[in-house]
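Quick one, tokens below. Sequence please?
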């Protein structure tokens, strides 16, 4: 799995992760651990934008337990996780996932059509939830 993780702003408040190519669930969890560790190093709110190249392929098997774990282990300073995807099936799946686990997980998860839309949603979320900070 090739993932680029870059900060979207100089203050390191938004991370953009982009995946491409073939990957395994093991690689996914290794990358997730790296993201969580970077977020734990921040003493302020951070948000995450997840994108993937059009040729990136998800491994076989249900993604639900993997995504649920990802939301569960995010540190308290994570405000919003925005998945960029225009696929109708993926959008429905994420919408269902975020509703099913909304009360169990500590992170707000949305799906958007572009990185620009993700940034706009993050800005709006920050206005409504300015106190999302590390404990």
């Amino acid at each position: 799995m090739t993932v680029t993780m870059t900060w979207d702003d100089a203050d390191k408040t938004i991370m953009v992760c982009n995946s491409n190519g073939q990957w395994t669930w093991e690689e996914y969890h290794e990358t997730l651990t790296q993201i969580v560790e970077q977020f734990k190093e921040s003493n302020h709110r951070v948000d995450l934008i997840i994108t993937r190249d059009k040729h990136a392929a998800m491994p076989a098997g249900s993604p639900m337990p993997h995504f649920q774990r990802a939301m569960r282990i995010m540190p308290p300073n994570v405000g919003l996780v925005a998945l960029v995807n225009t696929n109708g099936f993926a959008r429905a799946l994420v919408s269902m996932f975020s509703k099913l686990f909304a009360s169990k997980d500590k992170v707000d998860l949305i799906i958007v059509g572009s990185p620009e839309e993700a940034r706009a949603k993050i800005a709006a979320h920050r206005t409504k939830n300015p106190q999302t900070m590390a404990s």
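Strands lie at 2-7, 14-20, 46-52, 78-84, 108-112. The first helix runs from residue 25 to 40.
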